[in-house]
Amino acid sequence: MPYEREESAFGLLFSCKMKRQNVRTLSLVVCTFTYLLIGASVFDVLESDTEKKRWEYLKAMKHSFMTKYNMTDDDYRMLEIVVIENKPNKAGPQWKFAGAFYFATVVLAMIGYGHSTPVTRQGKAFCMGYAMVGIPLGLVMFQSIGERLNKFASVVIRRLKTYLNCKYTEATEMNLMFATGMLSTGIITTGAYVFSNYEGWSYFDSFYYW
């Protein structure tokens, strides 16, 4: 009886601990996502008008250039290929909310800005402060998610070993590394395939991007 009570108490304690960890992870995810929304909104406000004026200026310059040199649209497109003047804006405005949200995500994930960088002094100043707070927040969130994924993988591996009647059913570090590698490979190959079709890139370039 004492042993059963001790085991029951241990199970209840473990269950409560797991629930607290899950609540903590969910809270971090919600907090980080809210922070991304705030960042995207601020970047939208700070950068959108400047980008719009620059875009209108480029369109006016294009029209003036084509008129001055009597160029056709095909001629100008050929020139664009050489100069790549408007390449950063080919997908549309960068600093509307969707593009700003992507930039905010890139800042938190620390994967590089690419073509998208703030132009205004206010945008640059906000970016520095935003990164100083957001990067640690993102790291804590990713660490917590990683812990949850490891726990989930351990449970799956243990049940699989039990189903296969393995002598040792506990998930080893090697098992977790293999599971993580397979999951990462699946995500990268799937993402590369999507980008290859969506962007028209070669599969190798898409895989490298991921």
Automatic annotation (TrEMBL):
GO molecular function, one term: potassium ion leak channel activity
Protein's cellular compartments: Membrane
Record's keyword annotation contains Ion transport: yes
Any one Gene Ontology BP term: stabilization of membrane potential
Annotated TM spans: 26-46, 95-113, 125-145, 176-195
Entry's Gene Ontology cellular component terms: plasma membrane
Chief place of localization: membrane
Keyword Ion transport (UniProt): yes
Membrane topology: Multi-pass membrane protein
Pfam families according to UniProt: Ion_trans_2
Family of this protein: Belongs to the two pore domain potassium channel (TC 1.A.1.8) family.
Descriptive protein name: CSON004350 protein
Gene this chain is encoded by: CSON004350
